Amino acid sequence: MTSKLTRSLIYWAILSPLVVVILFPFGVMFVTAVRPREELFVYPPTWGFTEFRWENFSEMWVKTNFGGALLNSLYVSIAATAVALLLSIPAAYAMSRYRFAGKGAYRTFLLMTQMMSPIVLVLGLFRLMMALGLVNDLNSLVLTYAAFNMAFTIWMLQSYFNSIPRDLEEAAWMDGASHLTSLVRIFLPLAVPAVVVTAIFTFINSWNEFVLALTMMRSSEDFTLPVQIYAQVAGRYQVEWHHVMAATVLATVPVAIVFSWLQRYLIRGMALGAVK
Amino acid sequence: MANRIQKAVPLMMILPGLLLAITIIGYPIIDLAWTSMQDVSRFGKLTGFNGGANYAEVFADPLFWGSLWRTGIWTVAVVGGTLVISMPVAMILNDDFYGRGLARVIIMLPWAISLTMTAVVWRWALNGRAGLLNATLMNAGIIDQPIEWLATANTAFVVEILVGILVSIPFTTTILLGGLSSMPQDAYEAAVVDGASGWDQFRHITLPLMKPFINIAIVLNVIYVFNSLPIIWVMTEGGPANGTDILVTYLYKLAFRFGQLGKAAAISLVMFLVLLAFTMLYVALVSRNDRDDAAPEEEVDA
Amino acid sequence: MTHPFRTSTATLALSLGILGFVPAALAETVVDFTVAEYSSKTGPYFQEVANAFQAENPDIRINIEVVPWDTLLQRLTTDVAGGSAPDISIIGTRWLLDFASQGVAEPIDGYLTPEFKDTFIDTFMAPGVIDGKTMGLPVAASARAMMINMDLYDQAGATPPTTWDELYEASKKIAALPETFAFGLQGKEIETDAYFYYALWTHGGDILKPDGTSGLDSPEALEAATLYKKMIDEGLTQPSPTNYTREDVFNLFKQGKVGTIFTFPMLIPQIKAEAPNLKYRIMPFPEGKAKATYGVTDTLMMFADSDAKEAAWKFIEFAYKDEWREKFDMGEGFLPVTKNVAALPHFTEDPDVAGFAAGLPYAKFAPTIANWEEIADVTVRTLQRIYLGQVSPEEGLKAAAAEINKIRGL
User: Fold this and answer.
1) Contact C69 A235 (CB under 8 A)
2) Closest residue in chain C to residue A42, using alpha carbons only
3) Domains: count for chain A
4) Which domain holds residue B286?
5) What integer is the mean pLDDT of B218-226?
6) Distance between CA C165 and CA C287 in Å, rounded?
7) Residue A60: pLDDT above 90?
8) What backbone torsions phi and psi does residue C361 show, to the nearest 5 degrees?
9) Assigned domain for B229 exists
10) How many CB pairs under 8 A join A and B?
């Protein structure tokens, strides 16, 4: 057996090219975000710059209405996650615990919903939201994101639920508890890791979604972060790259932090939800 | 009576979700299918049934076939590349070593930025003269002239595929890592006792046990990558000279630039059918091979 | 009917003071106005106009929606398809025919009083007239011109060119300077075709021949394309033009790396802010057989489905007052579309603005024809293939012309 130290060195050596490539765009973002405007286009380009311009961030915050977009993004992502979970948990429970007609068809249907790119459906979705009176309303995004993420959340939750032994619930039934009580008291606490994982998935997907947000949200007060940042790049006569990158850094860092904090759960949830 | 209620319970549980999915996704699909058989004005007004004319036009369009071909390359290259990289990465991350927590966080990072943003950042980094990629490579002495990465379709497409792989790694690694960490240790210990080499272990133990995870990773990645617009759209808009157009970018241009909504709807439907056929075929192949490995959900139903 | 979620967002937004909350007055008319975002100043500018208007007209509320240019057409397409078009919108004049022929645009002759019409410069009014009906008002205009870096010209001992031959000779001298490119050639994304039309027109050709077929297979087009290709091959342009957007080319110029570019007036404020020491001069495009410049206008259009036309028109008349137009044109760097603003000292005495405005008498406009975006796409694709050497200019242009004629149904 090689020692842990040697192994660590070898592993880091193998991972290093990937690590460099992954960190590269973050480095680019950062050094562009903090450099003075005049130093954006220098040739030959360099990583270095003459001064840290932290004001880039505050300028950007005001100019791009970053705060408003941030709140919109938070609202949409949290609400979409909540709706997706609220609908997926019972569905996944049913898929895991009951036999019923049409289960196979339901599964196929869910898989098929994953095959349509939102881009393809944009026109139809827009007409639908018109009919529902939800255009220019962040809730149209909430519903759409929840729907597009449900297939994955149901699938994940179901395979996790399968791994929770049924005896516990059955014991509770024996004690006279109703199905609902046993579900809430016994089952759900056990399912927390899987719920966290699916919540992260849905949240990140909603946080990052672009095309639908672009189509459905019509006034800039309702823009979510990706749309707001893209608006700084698209078709302007001039792109303020340092502001764009500052915005990207700010939009990314919180997610990255939450992510690294929760990724333990993520892998554990994946592992336990394993199709063993 | 009680039995009937019993039967209704699971249906009640799936119903709300099903309703949402049918409304939000089902309705637009039908709308799309309907549109694809009509003459459509620039602004989506249906002006009459035209049978298969939209489809005929699509199939007669050389740009469609070119895009279809590149979609194939794009999907296979990105999904294949992602798997080939993610598998060893997942195995390393599953093993115990110094700094594993940090390594895991770094590998997951690309997930934290939206695809659009990643593509914007790369486009900026790839800028021939002001871009930091050339700066870095020139400093490192790897190249001595700036390279215009996105100037020709060949290099641009390769770069886009690499970026596509990079952003697909976190998701895939997570799935694989989940699989690896659920693997029974005793199987390996037995193998070590039998004197099996690392490669043998990988081939005869890891790979078969990982199959369900790899399959999930393949199916989901194929679906996501096939439909992915942002990377190519932001970096090259399918250009130069349509040389990096895949179906979804071509579709986007048709629908929203040229206003050919009927033709675009037809392409959408063709794309849907291609994916459907692939998934059905793949699922069928996989489940035939895996009969003995026991299909999971039947097991717990009992 | 209140949607629970909707209330909560509204409350949330309100409590944080994001929305300027307007108490709903009785019988308030709402005018939805979609605005193309030219720069970060555009949104605030129009909001200011709207606020001033609302102060005078409390019964009308102007709802401004700012949309990035690149997604404007998609947005309007979806809006119209979904039946939720705004009341008025800024659009690219090149889209106007599609909007008009589908009955989406409202003719405005009935609203346009002779006095109001007379405030506009006729040249800019003309592109908005389709089949004798005025379908829109010019809202932003620019003309294009050549801009040269005087320092580089002096260093290379080259004379500012007035003809293509002179430009070619001057470029050879400038290209000999170290780390310098002679001619900035755009080869990617928005207006790649325009960069070619400049040469096409000045060589005496046109986008469409008199009989309506594509002018790309004309000898003049071939001459223009061959010249560009020759300049690429001889190293007179920056390397790999197909990787350079309009903005990239302009950035090279700001860095002082390129001798000659073709550009628009909006570049001037950028140069003043970012490269104040750059010595530049604005000149007409080099002549071949003809003088030409590209006049580009954007149009303010009213939608046929609007249910607030009277209110919208009232706002339009308000927004075209001189003080507002002056602020807009100065802020964005456009050429004035109204006579009074054009007569202001800033626009007559400033040599930069005058340099661009000089071309207006012989300005060409993009033809108002259906499927313009698709035709432009064919042109761009062909140019890229020519620049990359994938096809000869002759062969490429001929095929492109055939394709365009097919799109036009000729």
Assistant:
1) yes
2) C255
3) 2
4) 62-301
5) 90
6) 9
7) no
8) -60, -30
9) yes
10) 290
pLDDT tens-digit profile of C291-310?
A: 999 999 999 999 999 999 99
Domains and CATH numbers, chain C: 25-142+296-364 (3.40.190.10), 144-293+369-407 (3.40.190.10)
What residues of chain A lie within 8 A of the CB of C43, using their CB? 220
pLDDT recorded at residue A1: 54
Q: Residue A91: in which H helix or E strand, if any?
A: helix A66-97
Domain contains A60: no
Q: Is A76 part of a structural domain of the chain?
A: yes
Same-domain pairing of A46 and A71: no
* CA neighbor of A28 nearest in space, from B132, B162, B115: B132
Chain B residues within an 8 Å CB radius of C369 = none
For B25-34, C152-161, C186-195, which range has the lowest pLDDT when averaged over its residues? B25-34
**Strand ranges for A179-273 from DSSP E:** none
pLDDT band at A184 (very low <50, low <70, confident <90, very high): confident
Among residues A172, A165, A171, A173, the alpha carbon closest in space to that of A191 is found at: A165
Domain hosting residue A2, numbered range:
1-53
The pair of structure tokens assigned to B89 is 């990465």
pLDDT at A228 over 70: yes
Prediction ipTM score? 0.85
pLDDT surpassing 60 at residue C12: no
At C147 the pLDDT is 97
Which residues, at least 6 apart from A75, have a Cβ–Cβ distance to it below 8 Å? A138, C9, C12
Q: Cβ(A68)–Cβ(A221) under 8 Å?
A: yes
Same structural domain, A131 and A229: yes
Is residue B272 less than 8 Å (CB to CB) from chain A?
yes
pLDDT in tens, C109-129: 999 999 999 999 988 998 899
B162, amino acid identity: L
Considering only CA atoms, which of B241, B119, A213, A73 is closest in space to residue C68? A213
Phi, psi at C68, each rounded to 5°: -60, 145
**CATH code of the domain containing B154:** 1.10.3720.10
In the block, residue with structure tokens 């579900």: A183
CA nearest neighbour of A126 among B257, C81, B256, C71:
C81
- Give the whole-angstrom CA distance, residue C180 versus residue C167: 16
CB neighbour list of residue B153: distance below 8 Å, 6 or more residues apart: B239, B240, B241, B243, B244
Q: Which residue has the higher pLDDT, C131 or A123?
A: C131
